[in-house]
Amino acid sequence: EPEVTQTPSHQVTQMGQEVILRCVPISNHLYFYWYRQILGQKVEFLVSFYNNEISEKSEIFDDQFSVERPDGSNFTLKIRSTKLEDSAMYFCASSVGFEQYFGPGTRLTVT
Amino acid sequence: AQKVTQAQTEISVVEKEDVTLDCVYETRDTTYYLFWYKQPPSGELVFLIRRNSFDEQNEISGRYSWNFQKSTSSFNFTITASQVVDSAVYFCALSGTLTTDSWGKLQFGAGTQVVVTP
Fold first, then answer.
1. Given a cut of 90, is residue B114 above it in pLDDT?
2. Is the CB of residue B94 less than 8 Å from the CB of residue A98?
């Protein structure tokens, strides 16, 4: 069964560094998303992406964040200058309709 | 604004007992979708079910069933004859349909931890 994959599974970075989180959505899906989950808290929407542009973004998704689909398969989330509060699990999701299928997540730890 | 409330933080049951998870939502959208996701200890989010706001028929899928009541804005989820493998955090989520601003933006509740002991 096709699934969303994410790399790396765990990323440790120092405050102020740039990180890129990578996702490979399910191949026939058209809509792509990033969510984050701070430890012990609920899952929060960050951004949605369709037709090579951002469809929607939340208040969390400020200028430090960017997304890109650099080729036909990858979907990336970049955080330009990480802060301690960016530490969280980041989930990529994709959909062709209304059900979003999530990847296993990347745990980002900012020290 | 959309909001999903899961008032139960944790439910503990013994194997084979039924578990019902409560979910109450708020939305201004006239059409919307409701979802349940499961997050096992390994951390991934697993899609379980989706329900359209315009279809209040309740269904059963295997050991899962759900009770959607638009009049009370509730979307409760039941696991029948629970098993240890059902131990996980369960999230209720809401999004609008294609004609709404909230389409695609899943609004999650805080989650309910289900602990099933043998």
1. yes
2. no
Cβ contact B63:B78 at 8 Å: no
Tokens, residue A25: 């959505």
- B-chain residues near A103 (CB < 8 A): 44
User: Per residue in B82-92, pLDDT tens?
Assistant: 999 999 999 99
DSSP code of residue B72: G
How crowded is the C-beta side of B1, counted as CA atoms within 13 Å? 1
Q: Chain A residues with CB-CB distance to B under 8 A?
A: 31, 33, 35, 41-45, 48, 55-56, 58, 89, 91, 93, 95, 98-105, 107
Rounded-to-integer distance, Cα B30 and Cα B87, Å = 34
Tokens of B17: 């007992």
Residue A67 pairs in a beta bridge with: A77
Query: A35 vs B95: CB contact, 8 Å cut-off?
Result: no
Per-residue CA distances from A92 to A4, A104, B62 (Å): 8, 8, 28
Q: CA angle, corner A98, sides to A24 and B93, nearest 5?
A: 95
Of A98, A99, A102, the CB nearest to B44: A102
Phi and psi at residue B117, in whole multiples of 5°? -105, 150
Query: What is the per-residue pLDDT across A66-91, written as a single tens digit (0 to 9) for each?
Result: 999 988 789 999 999 999 999 999 99
How far is Cα B20 from Cα A25, in angstroms, rounded to an integer?
Answer: 32
